[in-house]
Write a sequence for this structure.
């Protein structure tokens, strides 16, 4: 990413956006969580960063978001729109070069669920 030095400030602003838009109490990153975000190579567009932070906000029960809540692979959750779900499934399949078992494992779902999602989302079985 061309703006690696801006990742920390961007992450903090995205975090503010989520707790305000979800109308939940303010949350903050621990130093270790911010380090995990800043040390990661953000090779894709900013949606990846948005997804990581959104997931961290949703799974963190306390005010502080710890490093273990920063998960860098695509996670499909109930709040995802169909287009976000489609994007994440395609991303996992591309990352795994079309290997369905590995893609399902990366998404933390059963291979059978991945095949059903691919069918429902119109993703061809040979998608790589």
């Amino acid at each position: 990413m061309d703006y690696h030095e801006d990742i920390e400030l961007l992450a903090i602003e995205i975090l503010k956006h989520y707790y305000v838009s979800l109308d939940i109490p303010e949350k903050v990153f621990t130093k270790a969580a911010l380090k995990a975000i800043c040390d990661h190579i953000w090779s894709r567009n900013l949606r990846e960063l948005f997804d990581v932070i959104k997931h961290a906000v949703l799974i963190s029960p306390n005010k502080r978001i710890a490093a273990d809540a920063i998960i860098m692979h695509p996670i499909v959750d109930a709040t995802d729109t169909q287009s976000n779900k489609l994007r994440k499934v395609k991303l996992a399949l591309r990352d795994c070069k079309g290997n369905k078992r590995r893609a399902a494992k990366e998404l933390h779902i059963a291979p059978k669920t991945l095949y059903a999602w691919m069918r429902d989302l119109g993703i061809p079985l040979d998608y790589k």
Summary: The CA atoms of residues 9 and 34 lie 10 Å apart. The chain has six helices and two strands. The beta strands are 28-29, 64-65. The chain has a mean pLDDT of 89.
